[in-house]
Design brief:
Helix content is 51%, strand content 12%. It is mainly alpha-helical. It is globular. It starts with a strand and ends in a 7-residue tail after the last strand.
């Protein structure tokens, strides 16, 4: 489990790439809906899928600032993230082990990490809220340690 800087426009936070992998799965599920229009939508979808499948493990690069091109797309991504929050909150307090294991990925490390206990929704919401603030330009930290309360 690598520890990576997740940044957007030179502001960001540090967390495990495995936690971002999980967050990006739920973000991608909402993002792929037809209602969201992005110039680089297919590129972003492919990037998300690469992360979900563990192809960036150990050298994670957060690339939204290269693919989200303007304030309209930033606002649209904020809407995506707000909808992800609603979806997550509707699940209750945790993502069950069975749901974690059902996430389609070829990454065996991901499957192993999330095989023993549920993942707290509140911890994913921390990541989603930080991403929203980064997109809105209100996140002020450039190297904040995002302490996620989940241990294998």
């Amino acid at each position: 489990m690598g520890y990576e800087l997740i940044d957007y426009n030179d502001k960001g936070f540090c967390t495990s790439d495995s936690y971002m992998q999980l967050a990006l799965y739920y973000i991608n599920e909402e993002f792929k809906e037809n209602q969201y229009v992005f110039t680089n939508k297919n590129t972003i979808l492919k990037y998300h899928e690469e992360v979900i499948n563990g192809y960036m493990a150990g050298w994670f690069a957060f690339l939204w600032d290269e693919y989200i091109l303007n304030t309209t797309e930033e606002q649209t991504m904020v809407q995506v993230l707000q909808n992800v929050k609603i979806t997550l909150l509707n699940k209750g307090s945790n993502i069950s082990i069975s749901e974690l294991q059902a996430i389609p990925t070829v990454d065996e490390d991901f499957k192993h990490l999330y095989s023993r206990k549920p993942f707290p929704i509140s911890e994913l919401i921390k990541i989603i809220d930080a991403l929203i603030q980064m997109l809105q330009g209100t996140w002020t930290a450039d190297n904040f340690d995002m302490d996620i309360n989940y241990k294998y």
